[in-house]
Amino acid sequence: MAVDVVTEVVIDRPVAEVAGYAGDPGNAPAWYLNIESVEWLTPPPLRVGSRAAFVAHFLGRRLAYTYEIVELVPGERLVMRTAQGPFPMETTYRWQPEGEGHTRMTLRNRGEPSGFAAVAAPVLAAAMRRANRKDLAMLKQLLEA
Description:
Helix content is 28%, strand content 43%. It is of the alpha+beta class. The chain has a seven-stranded antiparallel beta sheet with strand order 1-7-6-5-4-3-2. It is globular, with a radius of gyration of 15 Å. The mean pLDDT is 92.
């Protein structure tokens, strides 16, 4: 069973500011509550082919995985896919203007869990949805402060 979770938030900051901050993997531990660390595996700046190693805690487990940037349209869209990790996952950030000086950020996580994770996909999706809401709320709080 596939997991496909979409979460959105409107942040009272311009698109360039939101995309610049959220699109930098080095900032992820500040606004993703479950991400403990990020290490660049390729030199910045971010571009298609860039890779970063993430360490996170999710559902009581430590997860280590590597994301590779597969699509980048600055200020509009960023797509990352796991190049290595517990199960194939794709994360998409989309930034759209929402009135004067506001940004709608959409966070989408989708993947195909296998083994036990496949059986637990509905629970996994619900937990991801809760975590994503908290993460976007933290991002909003940080950028609007």
